[in-house]
Design goal:
Layout: H1 4-13, E1 33-38, E2 43-45, E3 48-56, E4 61-68, E5 71-76, E6 81-86, E7 92-102, E8 107-109, E9 113-117, E10 127-132, E11 138-139, E12 142-150, E13 155-162, E14 165-170, E15 176-180, E16 188-197, E17 202-211
Parallel strand pairs: 2-9, 11-17
Antiparallel strand pairs: 1-3, 3-6, 4-5, 4-7, 7-8, 7-9, 10-12, 12-15, 13-14, 13-16, 16-17
């Protein structure tokens, strides 16, 4: 459940300003507070996405309006404040925000959420290989785990795991991470790199290395 303080933080750090709803309100007027709670910022989405908003006001919320790429797509007058967005046939990056109105038509503007639509026509998985360290290598101290990754329509991210535990996600080339081997015991350990593309296809590369620190 969102707290009043959560909304205050969103309003302060929002990419929008409250005057984006229209005229600046008179001094002392309490504006509604609204926040997009789903999807998260920079998420990848597909099919039908349920956009959720949370809104509060010192009196009562009259309605919440949802906007996609700056265009009004829905207004909801009762809880829950949601909108079912059908992304079929769409692609690329899009923006989501909401406006909340109280009974006196005071307007509050939400945070801006950026999303990218997964290409569901893409069924070809990426190709990935861990290029460093080498299989069965002995490693010590801080090392760079390097990968070679390719995909027919682009790589979205590479997730790295040590012994099955996720440790890092890289969303841009060259898709690598620094591993401090002193955080694990001297022994054999596995490094897994999982590459995902924008169609949610994925592929793994797994190696085993020996950690030997002084």
């Amino acid at each position: 459940m969102f707290k009043y303080s959560d909304f205050i933080k969103i309003i302060v750090f929002s990419a929008f300003i409250l005057s984006g709803c229209g005229e600046n309100p008179p001094q002392g007027v309490n504006l509604p507070l609204v926040m997009i709670s789903y999807p998260p910022n920079n998420a990848y989405v597909k099919d039908t996405v349920i956009i959720k908003a949370e809104a509060i006001d010192n009196v009562e919320i009259k309605k919440v309006e949802f906007y996609i790429d700056g265009e009004s797509v829905s207004e909801v007058e009762q809880l829950p404040y949601t909108y079912n967005w059908n992304t079929h046939g769409l692609s690329g990056a899009h923006t989501i925000f909401a406006k909340a109105f109280d009974n006196e038509d005071n307007c509050g503007l939400s945070n801006l959420v950026n999303v990218s639509i997964l290409d569901t026509t893409d069924t070809e998985p990426p190709q990935i290989a861990i290029t460093s360290p080498a299989q069965w290598a002995t490693v010590t101290g801080v090392i760079e785990v390097l990968t070679a990754v390719s995909d027919n329509k682009g790589v979205a991210k590479v997730q790295f795991s040590i012994d099955g535990d996720s440790v890092f996600t890289d969303t841009s080339a060259p898709f690598s991470f620094s591993w401090n081997t002193t955080t694990v015991m001297n022994d054999w350990h596995t490094i897994l790199a999982k590459a995902s593309d924008f169609g949610d296809n994925w592929a793994n590369s797994l190696i085993t290395v020996r950690v030997q620190n002084p």
